[in-house]
Each structure stands twice: as structure tokens, then as C-alpha cells.
Amino acid sequence: MRCVFPLILILCLAVFAPTLKAQSPTPNPAVEKFADILLNTQSEEERRGLLVARKDLVNVELGQNLIAQGRKFMGENDFPRAEKAFTVALQVGEIADDKASVALALRSLGSVNGRQGNVKKALNFFERAATAYEVIK
Fold first, then answer.
1. Which single residue of 7, 33, 81, 125 has CA 20 to 30 Å from 116?
2. Residue 26 has what DSSP assignment?
């Protein structure tokens, strides 16, 4: 199983990495601040309440911002914060009906779990990401 996971990871990254990029040409300060608030919220219930209360800020840009922050945390090997950022990005993508952000968040969750050695969780996220990417095509 240890030999298979790196191959699956490399395959997923090679296939999906060029497809989508999480970047915004001109950042919206309100979205950036809301992303920080969401990431610093401890309770899942409180975070969901914020997402409902500030539906006006739950959009593609917010999802991309969270994915970018998750990537930054991954680069710093701060896997718990990266996983939280990708999880919140997944929630935002689902609420905003942003299929691209959902797929990218799922793939990113697969990567962060793979880096932590959670092979089964990583494979589950990669499979879900592959399904999400198929919907986009």
C-alpha cells in the first residue's frame, strides 16, 4: 500500500494540477478579513453560522482565498491549519455552488492527509476530487 499511494498522489497531481488555480486578480479586503475570521473560529457551529449570516461574502473569491491560505500553510508544514483552510474552502465551495473550488479543496485535502500519512483518508479525498473534476469537464 505504501508503494501505491505515492503513485496515486503523483498521478492525481499530474492530472489535476494544471486544471485549476486558486488565485484572484484583485483581492477584496472584506473577503480576506472574512476568510481570516472563518479560520480563527474554533467551533464548527459558529463557523456555519457565520457562513449563513454573511452569505454575501460566500463566493468563488472566498473559496480561492481559503485554498491559497491552505497552500501557504502546507508550504510551512502546518498541516492542521492547512486541513482547516481546505475544509472551510470545501464548505464555501458547496454553499456557493462553485464546483471548481469543491474539486480543488477535495484534492488539497487529499494532499494534506497524504503528507500526514493518512492514506485511507487521502485516497477517499482524491476519489471524491476525481468525481468532482469529472462533473466540471
1. 33
2. S
